[in-house]
Write a structure and sequence with these properties.
It comes from Corynebacterium frankenforstense DSM 45800. Its EC number is 4.1.1.36, 6.3.2.5. Pathway: Cofactor biosynthesis; coenzyme A biosynthesis; CoA from (R)-pantothenate: step 2/5; Cofactor biosynthesis; coenzyme A biosynthesis; CoA from (R)-pantothenate: step 3/5. GO terms for molecular function: FMN binding; metal ion binding; phosphopantothenate--cysteine ligase activity; phosphopantothenoylcysteine decarboxylase activity. With 421 residues, this protein is α/β, with parallel strands linked by helices. The protein has two domains: 171 residues, Rossmann fold (3-Layer(aba) Sandwich), CATH 3.40.50.1950; 237 residues, Rossmann fold (3-Layer(aba) Sandwich), CATH 3.40.50.10300. The strands form five sheets. Strands 12-11-8-13-16-17-18-19 form an eight-stranded mixed β-sheet, with helices on both faces. It has a five-stranded parallel β-sheet with strand order 2-1-3-4-5, with helices on both faces. A two-stranded antiparallel sheet has the order 6-7. Strand 16, helix 13 and strand 17 form a beta-alpha-beta unit. Helix 1 runs parallel beside helix 2, helix 3 packs across helix 5 and helix 9 crosses helix 14. The longest helix has 24 residues. Bound molecules: cytidine-5'-triphosphate. The site of cytidine-5'-triphosphate (CTP) has 13 residues, from helix 12 and strand 16.
């Protein structure tokens, strides 16, 4: 069931119907009467293939307000206005949408959209807290351009983000906020090493896994610092500040500067291990001396940023309980398989968690989903055979992100309970 409240962002609900239908869902749209002032019932009926009603007096013989709510596997409300959130918090049932939510026993996901002042108003804060306490997933809105000239938190998340977060929430029975009050530093995308002012050496990373991590971490309550190299065009996640970098040197500087303030550091960027030893100041012309030299390109080794962060924690430059996560994108070869390389990498890098996945042949890079193994090392492990392996089933990059962050939360709680002991 897709609930739509009366806000200017109601038109985005049309895209959301598509997002869910294309994933095989049978969508019933339940707008408030005011939502129909923005988008006509005919549009929702045509897109969903199901009839649309707003009040409990339509189809009384079918007891509609009970049926739609009871039969749904997932209720998503987007956009949710301040007024709708207030009515939900009060337990009202004065239209078909609020009545349906009251009878729904499935996960309910609310995507708010309103002016910043309304979102930050203590009345709305209290209502949101009430809904969250009751187990409803209220997503934090994006920050950005609102209806008027104003800008700030309150913008409806993009339909693809809402659909993905709703699926992730549904699969986990809702999203709580265990990272409230923490800062999570995430690197994403590929680095580019300049050859001259117009050319670079890069890689195929899309940045989607790093952005998905930021999306989920932001919704788990964290303040996210996202340092991004080259990526696909991706919307900024909620509660996230994005810093753009190009080269490994810029990435290292950005990560090293932010890591001491972070509670969690996740290196999802695809970092170039080497860079051209020298960068031409002007474009290398065909047949020029500089280009002739390209037959054998001299490379210099880049620093390992992840190992640097681990070393900083060991030296006391970071908080001792900073949780550090890395990735291992492996193909495997005649020497060892991908998982074995992942185990070795966890011990070599010294981080707390590694998400190891097999790449190549269209896997992982640029694809919407992923699969792999979550690797953790028991205290003092030196043998790859001692590494703990948990299989992460194929899922969207957000679902993988949710698995990784659940592990981070487990580690943080284990640390805290050790302190309490
Ligand atoms: N990484 C890093 N700095 C580098 C290279 C990699 O911080 N110079 C990080 C990546 O962001 C990732 C992890 O280290 O989290 C593993 O990256 P990967 O390229 O798989 O590992 P390498 O150390 O390059 O090992 P190898 O090339 O031998 O597989």
């Amino acid at each position: 069931m897709l609930g739509v409240a009366g806000g200017i962002a109601a038109y985005k609900a049309c895209h959301l119907v598509r997002e869910f239908s294309e994933h095989g869902a049978d969508v019933t749209v339940v707008p408030t009467p005011n939502a129909l002032k923005f988008v006509g019932a005919a549009t929702f009926e045509a897109l969903s293939g199901n009839p649309v009603a707003t009040d409990v007096f339509t189809g009384v013989d079918e007891v509609r307000h009970v049926r739609v709510g009871q039969e749904s596997d997932l209720v998503v409300i987007a956009p949710a206005t301040a007024d709708l959130i207030a009515r939900l918090a009060a337990g009202r049932a004065d239209d078909l949408l609020t009545a349906s939510v009251l009878v729904a026993t499935c996960p309910v996901v609310v995507a708010p959209a309103m002016h910043t002042e309304m979102w930050l108003n203590p009345a709305t804060r209290d209502n949101v807290a009430t809904l969250r306490r009751r187990g409803i997933t209220v997503l934090d809105p994006a920050s950005g351009r609102l209806t008027g000239p104003d800008s700030g938190p309150g913008r409806l998340l993009e339909p693809a983000q809402i659909a993905e977060l709703a699926r992730t929430a549904a699969a986990r029975g809702g999203l709580s906020r265990p990272l409230e009050g923490t800062t999570v530093l995430i690197s994403a995308g590929g680095t580019r090493e300049g050859l001259d002012p117009v050319r670079y050496l890069g890689n195929r990373s899309s940045g989607r896994q790093g952005f998905a991590l930021a999306e989920v971490a932001g919704q788990l309550g964290a303040r996210v610092e996202l340092v991004a190299g080259a990526t696909d065009a991706l919307p900024t996640p909620a509660n996230t500040t994005v810093t753009r970098i190009e080269s490994t040197a810029e990435l290292k500087a950005a990560v090293d500067e932010r890591a001491p303030r972070a509670d969690v550091v996740i290196m999802a960027a695809a970092v170039s291990d080497f860079r051209p030893a020298s960068v031409a100041g002007a474009k290398m012309k065909k047949g020029s001396e500089a280009e002739a030299g390209l037959e054998t390109l001299q490379m210099a080794e880049n620093p390992d940023i992840l190992r640097g962060v681990v070393a900083a924690r060991e030296s006391g430059a970071l908080g001792g309980d900073t949780v550090i996560v890395g990735f291992a994108a492996e193909t495997g070869d005649e020497d060892a398989d991908a998982l074995e390389y992942g185990r070795r990498k966890l011990l070599k890098k010294g981080c707390d968690v590694i998400l190891c996945n097999e790449v190549g042949q269209g896997r992982a890079f640029g694809t919407p989903d992923n699969a792999g193994w979550l690797l953790t090392a028991p205290e003092g492990a030196t043998d790859p055979a001692d590494v703990t392996v948990r299989e992460v089933p194929r899922g969207s990059k957000q679902e993988i992100a949710a698995e990784i962050l659940a592990e981070v939360v487990r580690i943080r709680h284990a640390d805290n309970s050790a302190l309490q002991d």
